[in-house]
TrEMBL record:
Cellular component aspect of the GO annotation: mitochondrial matrix
Descriptive protein name: phenylalanine--tRNA ligase
Broad class of where this protein is predominantly found: mitochondrion
Originating organism: Drosophila erecta (Fruit fly)
Gene Ontology molecular function: any one: phenylalanine-tRNA ligase activity
């Protein structure tokens, strides 16, 4: 099933960077309210505000903590594995777990603290849900790394939902769940059996301004090591990390699962890898990990340790483990769905049995964009997807941009979206679909000033 390959998990970080809009204080759009109430706090809005009431309604749903929910089962499996993998001398788990952190984070937490370049695509308005220019709904659970390390933690897991603007299909949803982990070790711990070895190169000064720490970003693709670390330290840490993560993968998918490590790039780790498993005739990426950039630790007040970190998407694991075909099912409150899973036997996971198959209804929507506006130049398909979500909710299974063209005479651009309607839990009538489709068309006219064709 090729679709599985695209289930949300980790982001692809090696995309070419496009220039972001200027960072001058943006104009407030006349349609947005002056302030927003999110999770009990009030936030000022500005020209970056793009969260919708629909998206805000997901806050606090905590599917990863809901009894018998497949995402909660996956969370427990990961947490239990880490509790077992690392114990202190008294036999107590070394890792602590944070699964109720506020998803409203600052741009600094989500990007700057993790050394994500100022012009990186992942910061774009079209990719994230911004509350205002400074605050957004976290786009990954990695956003909490620095606050927890600065608070003195050295072995922890963060589990929670993350928010990303994306296309609509059976494997993409604007809210999904991740688990992130950090493990820091000192020299004494890492080299218990080799006390003569060092974490850091002798020539490294330990200063944040040292060029051995700060290199042009192209150099961070170097898979060998960061200039400040010794090769021995990196190799030993890499070995421990890969051993633990392969252990987790085998714990989840069984001891015979076929896997491979693939070199990759993340702004916050170096070297970095993805772990892929062989599933239904395809290689499926399950997690991203690496040796933490020492600059992140230095800035968090940690000077004498090094660490590894990893991040994993829970929906992706759950869809494979339970054979769940559509990501919207995780949001179902249908007892026919939830009663299939039980936390009682975490190691004997049932396969999902479809509740029933309801027919699809497909309707196209074509419109002319306003003059001088083109797809991805003034009009982002993600804006349209959010509008459709707000109007039709989970009645929409897929949206595809099926056609776009520019009129040779008028110079106007036209787009056509194909919207596939299908409810997870009942049959939709064509009349009902037509009514919703009409509402989407008129909301598009109001919001984007387009002309329906
Ligand atoms: N935050 C990354 C993503 O969403 C995943 C990730 C990769 C997390 C490597 C990590 C890590 O902590 O070390 O794409």
């Amino acid at each position: 099933m090729i679709l599985t390959l695209r289930v949300q998990g980790a982001r692809h970080w090696v995309k070419s960077t496009r220039c972001l809009a200027s960072s001058a204080a943006p104009e407030k759009s006349p349609s947005s309210p002056p302030q927003l109430e999110v999770n009990g706090s009030t936030y000022a809005t500005d020209g970056w505000t793009n969260v919708t009431p629909k998206i805000l309604s997901y806050l606090g749903a905590n599917k990863h903590l809901q009894t018998d929910h497949p995402l909660s089962i996956i969370r427990q499996r990961i947490v239990n594995y880490f509790y077992g993998a690392y114990r202190n001398q008294r036999g107590n788990p070394l890792f602590s777990v944070y699964d109720k952190l506020n998803p409203v984070v600052t741009v600094q937490q989500n990007f700057d603290n993790l050394l994500i370049p100022a012009d990186h695509v992942s910061r774009q308005k079209s990719d994230c849900y911004y509350i205002n220019q400074q605050q957004l709904l976290r786009a990954h659970t990695t956003a909490h790394q620095v606050e927890l390390i600065s608070g003195g933690l050295d072995n922890f897991l963060v589990v929670g939902e993350v928010y990303r603007r994306d296309e609509i299909d059976s494997t993409h949803y604007p809210v999904f769940h991740q688990a992130d982990a950090v493990r820091l070790v000192t020299k004494d711990k890492l080299f218990e059996r080799n006390p003569g070895l060092e974490l850091f190169e002798e020539t490294w000064s330990g200063s944040l301004a040292d060029p051995k720490l700060i290199l042009p970003s192209s150099k961070f693709m170097d898979q060998t090591k960061q200039p400040c670390h010794t090769l021995e330290a990196v190799k030993l840490m890499e070995h421990e990390m890969k051993h633990v993560l392969v252990g987790l993968t085998k714990d989840l998918f069984g001891p015979r699962i076929k896997y491979r490590w693939v070199d990759t790039y993340f702004p916050f780790t170096q070297p970095s890898w993805e772990l892929e498993i062989y599933f239904k005739d395809n290689w499926l990426e399950v997690l991203g990990c690496g040796i933490m950039r020492h600059e992140i630790l230095q800035r968090s007040g940690v000077h004498q340790s090094m660490g590894y970190a990893f991040g994993v998407g829970l929906e992706r694991l759950a869809m494979v483990l339970f054979d769940i075909p559509d990501i919207r099912l995780f949001w179902s409150n249908d007892s026919g769905f939830l009663s299939q899973f039980s936390e009682k036997d975490l190691h004997n996971l049932p396969k999902y049995k479809p509740i029933s198959h309801y027919p699809q209804c497909t309707n196209d929507l074509s419109f002319w964009l306003p003059e001088d506006i083109e797809v991805d130049a003034g009009f982002s398909p993600n804006d349209f997807y959010d509008l459709v979500r707000s109007v039709a909710g989970d009645m929409v299974e897929q949206i595809n941009l099926v056609d776009k063209f520019k009129h040779p005479k008028t110079g106007k651009s036209s787009v056509c979206f194909r919207i596939v309607y299908r409810h997870m839990e009942r049959t939709l009538t064509q009349a009902e679909v037509n009514e919703i489709h009409k509402q989407i068309a008129s909301a598009s006219v109001d919001s984007f000033n387009v002309q329906i064709r």
